[in-house]
UniProtKB/TrEMBL annotation:
<dbReference type="InterPro" id="IPR015590">
    <property type="entry name" value="Aldehyde_DH_dom"/>
</dbReference>
<dbReference type="InterPro" id="IPR016162">
    <property type="entry name" value="Ald_DH_N"/>
</dbReference>
<feature type="compositionally biased region" description="Basic and acidic residues">
    <location>
        <begin position="1"/>
        <end position="17"/>
    </location>
</feature>
<keyword id="KW-0560">Oxidoreductase</keyword>
<dbReference type="InterPro" id="IPR016163">
    <property type="entry name" value="Ald_DH_C"/>
</dbReference>
<feature type="active site">
    <location>
        <position position="235"/>
    </location>
</feature>
<comment type="similarity">
    <text>Belongs to the aldehyde dehydrogenase family.</text>
</comment>
<dbReference type="InterPro" id="IPR016161">
    <property type="entry name" value="Ald_DH/histidinol_DH"/>
</dbReference>
<protein>
    <submittedName>
        <fullName>Aldehyde dehydrogenase family protein</fullName>
    </submittedName>
</protein>
<dbReference type="Pfam" id="PF00171">
    <property type="entry name" value="Aldedh"/>
</dbReference>
<dbReference type="GO" id="GO:0016620">
    <property type="term" value="F:oxidoreductase activity, acting on the aldehyde or oxo group of donors, NAD or NADP as acceptor"/>
</dbReference>
<feature type="region of interest" description="Disordered">
    <location>
        <begin position="1"/>
        <end position="20"/>
    </location>
</feature>
<dbReference type="InterPro" id="IPR029510">
    <property type="entry name" value="Ald_DH_CS_GLU"/>
</dbReference>
<feature type="domain" description="Aldehyde dehydrogenase">
    <location>
        <begin position="5"/>
        <end position="461"/>
    </location>
</feature>
Length: 479
């Protein structure tokens, strides 16, 4: 096993070459970094909220100034041009949005009043930021997922150390320059690079942890956090279902399902990964889906053209191929697309539609994370709901029906945290507005969205004042 000080190679998903290296901090250096952050957090957490917000807004401005460089770095790591260059602006919007909503939602969380149990006791709540938060993030959306939890945590007054995935860490260099532009922030926010060993070491240093990644790693992270009794907020994978009813506008349904299945090469946690269509419209829906799928082009050789880029993580192509092979061996039919193909060192896959699938197949039960849409027919609404809920996961789901009310009726019965009605894959819409919990293996530890997305970074305290004489033991007698 390599020593922690060793450099790790980073693969370019378009060329297949290792053309970048990261150097994980040694355990000693990691400990020093965390001590520095802890020391700086004391002043950061004590600052008035308005001052922290002013600092964060300066960071947003700095990201905007460096957006091109950040987008360029992320584009190399992910192989995606357009989305990678949109991400810095999404992060900027995220900072400005949380800065706008934080004062009111913190205010609402500060309770005071008179005890309903002891009328002589008044109380006042206090929110104390968790001193040092660790963030461990995945490769599929490097900058966005490295900062999704860090932004509200910093506003809350925490110091944050972020360990992004070793598969896609190039954004760290340009982002560090934006942090360095804002010295007050640089004292309480640090990005460190490394693989799972650095992730494990980080858990030993922090007071709470936000993890986004796979179920397998999430389990290890949960155990390590449980051993230290620190709060763990885990966001894992999904196998999102979409239900298309007999009354649905099939063009709308095919448009929504296709986009949510293949956008970002299907490498989004809330991608649509299985579709249940009423038997009366199954064939017509599949025809539309295939027609639309066939119009999509690979984003090769020019990363600025086409619709479907390479697999970011090379091993993902093999997993997706294995799911398709398993399905075909068990009787599924390939309506379009097929296997991954190697072009110029990268692995690509055309939009793929499978029919005649069952829940005995991996493509309907395990996270595929590729541009694959398996479609299964159902006869009754009850059956559709039972099939959609027959999953180890429960991240998000979608219902496309004749109208919103019909979709809502079904959506209310789906075991998933965020259910899109009349569209699919729009979970990000509620980021600062509504809370959602993941079901089953998709997550643990409270909503990362809505008010709790920020309030979870506080330890809630209560200060109680007794305005009467304290109870006297002599008067109380025997308990
Ligand atoms: P992964 O679990 O392989 O790695 C995630 C992170 O954990 C990386 O930074 C990695 O270095 C680190 N890590 C690995 N082993 C570790 C260990 N033992 N201790 C601590 N950290 C360790 O996940 P991935 O392949 O990078 O990401 C893809 C997965 O993430 C998919 O399952 C996807 O659905 C999921 N995901 C979920 C969400 C969500 O919001 N629910 C969002 C995006 C991605």
């Amino acid at each position: 096993m390599a020593a922690a000080e060793d450099r790790l190679p980073v693969r370019n998903p378009r060329t297949g070459d290792n053309d970048y290296w990261i150097t994980p901090p040694s355990p000693k250096r990691l400990h020093e970094i965390c001590q520095e952050l802890r020391a700086a957090q004391v002043a950061w957490g004590a600052r008035p909220l308005a001052e922290r917000i002013a600092v964060m807004l300066r960071w947003a401005d700095a990201i905007e100034r460096h957006a091109q460089a950040i987008g360029d770095a992320e584009a190399i790591d992910t192989g995606r041009w357009k989305l990678s260059h949109q991400v810095p602006h999404m992060v900027v919007d995220g900072i400005r949005g949380w800065c706008k909503s934080a004062p009111a939602l913190i205010d609402r969380a500060l309770l005071s009043g008179t005890s309903t149990i002891y009328p002589n006791v008044s109380f006042q709540s206090q929110l104390k930021p968790i001193p040092l938060l660790g963030v461990i993030s995945p490769w599929n959306h490097p900058f966005l997922l490295a900062t999704l939890d860090a932004i509200p945590a910093l506003i809350a007054g925490c110091a944050v150390v972020v360990k992004p995935s070793e598969i896609a860490p190039r954004f760290v260099e340009p982002v560090q320059r934006t942090v360095d532009d804002v010295p007050e922030l640089a004292a309480v926010l640090r990005f460190i690079t490394g693989d799972g060993r650095t992730g494990q070491a980080l858990i030993e240093e922090v007071d709470a942890l936000c993890f986004t990644g796979s179920v397998g790693t999430g389990r290890k992270v949960a155990v390590a956090c449980a051993n230290r009794f620190i709060p763990a907020f885990l966001e894992m994978g999904g196998k999102d279902a979409a239900v298309v009813t007999a009354t649905a506008d099939l063009d709308r349904a095919a448009t929504a399902v296709l986009r949510s299945s293949v956008f970002a090469t299907g490498q989004i946690c809330f991608s649509t990964e299985r579709v249940y269509v009423h038997e009366s419209v199954h064939d017509a829906f599949v025809q539309k889906l295939v027609e639309k799928s066939n119009q999509l082009e690979l984003s090769y050789p020019d990363p600025r053209r086409g619709h479907i880029g390479p697999f970011t993580f090379v091993r993902q192509a093999a997993i997706v191929d294995a799911h398709i092979d398993d399905a075909l061996a068990q009787g599924a039919r390939l309506a379009c697309g097929g296997k991954s193909e190697q072009l110029g060192g990268g692995h690509y896959m055309r939009a793929t539609v499978l029919t005649e699938v069952t829940h005995a197949m991996k493509v309907m039960t395990e996270e595929t994370f590729g541009p694959v849409t398996p479609v299964m027919r159902y006869r009754t609404e009850e059956e559709a709901i039972a099939l959609a809920n027959d999953s180890d996961y429960g991240l998000s789901a979608a219902v496309i029906a004749g109208d919103v009310e019909e979709a809502r009726r079904i959506g209310e019965r789906l075991d998933a945290g965020a259910v899109a009605l009349q569209d699919a894959g729009i979970t990000i819409a509620i980021l600062r507005d509504a809370e959602k919990n993941s079901f089953n293996l998709s997550g643990m530890g409270g909503s990362r969205m809505g008010p709790n997305g920020l309030l979870r970074f506080y330890r809630k305290k209560a200060l109680m004042a007794n305005h009467a004489a304290p109870a006297d033991m002599l008067a109380l007698g025997e308990a």
